[in-house]
Specification:
Helix 5 runs parallel beside helix 6. Helices cover 36% and strands 21% of the residues. The longest helix has 31 residues. It is α+β, with helices and mostly antiparallel strands.
Length: 485
């Protein structure tokens, strides 16, 4: 099967990220385990497929604490590998990055990074406050604007940092949740020497986000490498750019013109709107829009505000690209919904956030929501052990992101073959591209056949020998520092 061969070839490219062959085989074992496991529930759900025992389960735990691989080079290799597939959506020569936060419930008392979180859902079945992990996830739009995937590039914990860095700066100098995600996007742009749009929701419509995006410029192009597209909040105001006086006057020139309430523009300036056909959530429809460059007082600089009236109601978009086409901004912001689908697949399909790593050096925490100011850092002698547990959580989620990204790349490369091999019943096929769930069902079937085949492929043979001969693994695995549970 060409899709299965492609999966093995992609896994082969990760070989140089591991100091020895055995950790790389464990990496492949976990990635394939994400794909074949029907009911993902952490590492314990991977063992039945590989016919593993208790000792093998603990070896998988040790893999995430191993010094044979590092998370940063793995992320850099994965993002470069995705770009080399030439499947990323480009608009005006820039890639499209999608970012968002997600909260994961963790009822753990000794897990680093667990904080009290507030959920904004109107569902009464959910508690207002709960304990869990707060993740920032960055993805790349792949495929096309009509049928796209959000391929995960990186996922990091963005709260509870006091557990690994007790010497945090003061609140005035500390990075916010929004700027931490901006640092991830800037790292991608710097790493690959490219330009990109970063599409975000209204949570990121703040001055420090635009200031940080404007801080990194392309010298040759004389413009920022990262452009932000986000939605303005309904209570935002802006100011007209004052015109230079025709004759010199005493005093300082005006910085701000007349004040404008953004959502009042739909009533006062409706006659100036232009009707055009735009891409809205995968469908073409006629949209009325108006683009204005206005001064935004929190930033003390001009921004481009795009007022649009769609079938879903009025919306105001903000961007630091003062020449951005309104139709492009509307289409890109509507594509932001793909990051929500990606998070749903990570949680429900692959069980990426079903990890259970903890350390006895974390002070026992209450399961009831408490103020995050009460979080206490571990003793400085135990910071390395707690950092290892923190890295294990991020490493597990990153491997789940890679598994989901491989499913998406296979769907884009081998869509026709996946549909021909798919044997399950679908009442409605909404897109020509197969979903991640469809690709997972097909690949799981093919991987099972290869696992039990008399002469499997070379990589599957090595993984099978590794799973069936645990004594050999003891001789090959490096000596690890004692893992603290």
């Amino acid at each position: 099967m060409p899709a299965l061969l492609y999966l093995y070839q992609m896994l082969e490219t990760f070989r140089h990220q591991f100091s020895r062959r055995t950790p790389w085989l464990l990496f492949c074992l976990i990635i394939i385990g994400f794909i074949v496991t029907p009911h993902p529930e952490g590492l314990s759900s991977l063992c039945p497929f590989w016919l593993s025992h208790d000792t093998d389960y603990h070896r998988l735990l040790h893999f995430f604490h191993s010094c044979a691989w590092q998370l940063e080079p793995l992320i850099a290799h994965w993002s470069g590998l995705v770009l080399n597939q030439h499947l990323a959506v480009e608009v005006e020569g820039r890639y499209i990055l999608l970012g968002d936060h997600t909260a994961v419930v963790k009822d753990a008392r000794r897990m680093p990074g667990v904080v009290t979180l507030h959920q904004h859902s109107e569902t009464q079945s959910k508690p207002t406050y709960f304990r869990g992990h707060y993740w920032g996830v960055l993805g790349l739009l792949t495929g096309s604007l009509q049928e796209a995937f959000c391929t995960p590039l990186e996922a990091r914990l963005h709260q509870g940092l006091v557990h690994i860095d007790p010497a945090l700066p003061s609140d005035a100098d500390r990075d916010t949740q929004s700027t931490r995600l901006l640092h991830m996007a800037l790292a991608f742009v710097k790493r690959h020497g490219t330009q990109a749009f970063l599409v975000l929701d209204a949570f990121f419509a703040s001055a420090n986000v635009f200031e940080l995006a404007n801080s990194y410029w392309a010298i040759e192009l004389k413009q920022p490498c990262l452009y932000i597209i986000t939605r303005a909040k309904k209570n935002y105001r802006a100011y007209l750019i004052p015109q230079a006086p025709t004759s010199p006057r005493a005093g300082r020139p005006r910085k701000y013109g007349d004040k404008i309430k953004l959502y009042e523009v739909f009533e006062t300036q409706r006659a100036q709107f232009i009707d055009a056909v735009c891409q809205v959530y995968g469908h073409e429809e006629t949209v009325a829009y108006l683009a204005l460059n206005l001064m935004w007082k929190p930033l003390k600089a001009p921004l481009r505000f795009i007022f649009a009236i769609t079938s879903r109601g009025p919306i105001v978009l903000m961007s630091n690209d003062l020449s951005l086409q309104p139709s492009v901004a509307i289409a890109l912001y509507c594509a932001r919904v793909r990051v929500e689908t990606m998070l749903a697949m990570l949680k429900g399909l692959l069980g990426t956030f079903a990890y259970r790593f903890w350390s006895r050096y974390i002070e026992r925490q209450s399961r009831k929501p408490k103020k995050n100011a009460t979080l206490k850092a571990p003793h400085h002698d135990h910071l390395e052990a707690v950092q290892s547990t923190w890295n294990a959580c991020e490493g597990f989620v990153m491997l789940g992101c890679i598994a989901l990204g491989l499913l998406q790349l296979i769907a884009l490369h081998y869509d026709t073959h996946i549909w021909l091999t798919f044997t399950r019943f679908l009442r409605t096929r909404r897109r020509a591209l197969p979903s991640e769930r469809t690709v997972k069902a097909v690949l799981a079937q093919e991987l099972l056949k290869d696992f039990y085949r008399l002469k499997p492929r070379a990589m599957m043979q090595e993984i099978r020998d590794l799973a069936r001969h645990p004594d050999d693994l003891d001789e090959q695995t490096e000596r690890l520092p004692q893992r603290q549970l």
